[in-house]
Amino acid sequence: MDSKYITIYNEIVSNIENKLINPNEKLPSENDLMQKYEVSRDTIRKALNLLEQNGYIVKIKARGSFVLDINKFDFPVSGLTSFKELSTKFNLKSKTIVQEFDLINPDDYLMKQLNISKENRVWKVIRIREIDGQKIILDKDFINKDYVQSLTEEICKNSIYEYIEKKLGLKISFAKKEITVQKATDEDKKLLDFENYDMIVVVKNYIYLEDATLFQYTESRHRPDKFRFVDFARRQQ
User: Fold this and answer.
1) Could you give the maximum distance between any two Cα atoms of the chain, in Å?
2) Same domain, 77 and 63
3) Are residues 111 and 189 in the same domain?
4) More confident of the two residues 105 and 85
5) Among 49, 63, 164, 183, which one is most buried in terms of CB atoms within 10 A?
6) Same domain assignment for residues 40 and 139
7) Which domain holds residue 45?
8) Could you read off the pLDDT of 210-233 as tens digits, one per residue?
9) Where is the HTH gntR-type domain positioned along the sequence (predicted)?
10) CB burial of residue 118 (10 Å; 0-12, 13-18, 19+)
11) What are phi and psi of 211, to 5 degrees?
12) In whole angstroms, what is the distance from residue 47 CA to residue 13 CA?
């Protein structure tokens, strides 16, 4: 038989997942929960600690326990995950809209980001990512044509990484990332379902092949309420 705190934990989790308790809503106090479930303070604290450990609530000193928004998608900060892989992992109803596809001459900014000269040519791919009917990511990809000789709009609609690795036989190895929160642009608000948000999370990726060749620069712009960026860190003594 489950311990009492597990039973309380499961009931609160069920209420959160079924939206009987909303994100940012404050849970009843420990005293109120003790009376409701007719258990000790220790039992309630065990249930609340488990809820916090599993990402359902946050406990704020002198204020109480507040429900977190569980309807966010985890993006690994230190990993390289394509949108298609993310959609498959979370079983999402998703769609990619290719807003712009072109082969361009790089401007000064792109030459600096990709460490190339004006003689190089660059694939420019602007894609809107839609999840559950909402446009929430704007991806801007710039790929050095020296390494990806051919590309099509259909490939961009499906998965560029899948094409590069499975069709071209190249191995994507690692990326350097920069994550910032910026003021949303008019383009962001035009292309994404932005509601009333003024800020956007911008992830810049410098992506390298197995031989440490920089071949792609990406700017991925995320609506701030739909994602959390996660990583695992171990303290080094």
Assistant:
1) 75
2) no
3) yes
4) 105
5) 164
6) no
7) 4-67
8) 999 999 999 999 988 777 777 766
9) 2-70
10) exposed
11) -90, 15
12) 10
